[in-house]
């Protein structure tokens, strides 16, 4: 088990070295240290301050300085589909800052003053958790789509049962046979029946 885990580490590090990172941070001592450490890791880094309304293309990770003066700043890209994960760089620790970090959906933080220790771990943990969240979101969407399809089939069966005086099994068998004849998915046939019923009722 340990051997398998160690064999994954080089690839994980290579993945981190290929990242495109945006550092939204003032060009102060902390900012210079952050930039230097990210460059030493091998990341492609772009630094900006203040925050941008839109992100550069293919941004994989965002480091964001969270400070009292930035709490009211709007980040439109945060809610965009496919937005990259954010790693906050935190100079203060109080309830307001903690709440801001939580609203960013951060998996971990980098404390100020920035040091080399912990930076690589923060990136690795963030990427892993972000991938897990995306996988979970895809799974939830598939489940929701499947449930929607099942509801559609059930509705089509009900229409056939009412209009043709069929049992539930007979209605389903009719749906399935029509799907085979037309070489369509059963959900497609069900949708057609529902639309036809809506037109006739109208």
TrEMBL record:
One of its GO terms (molecular function) is RNA binding. Signal peptide: none annotated. Residues 133-194 form the ANTAR domain. SMART domains: ANTAR. This is Aliphatic amidase regulator. It comes from Paraburkholderia aspalathi.
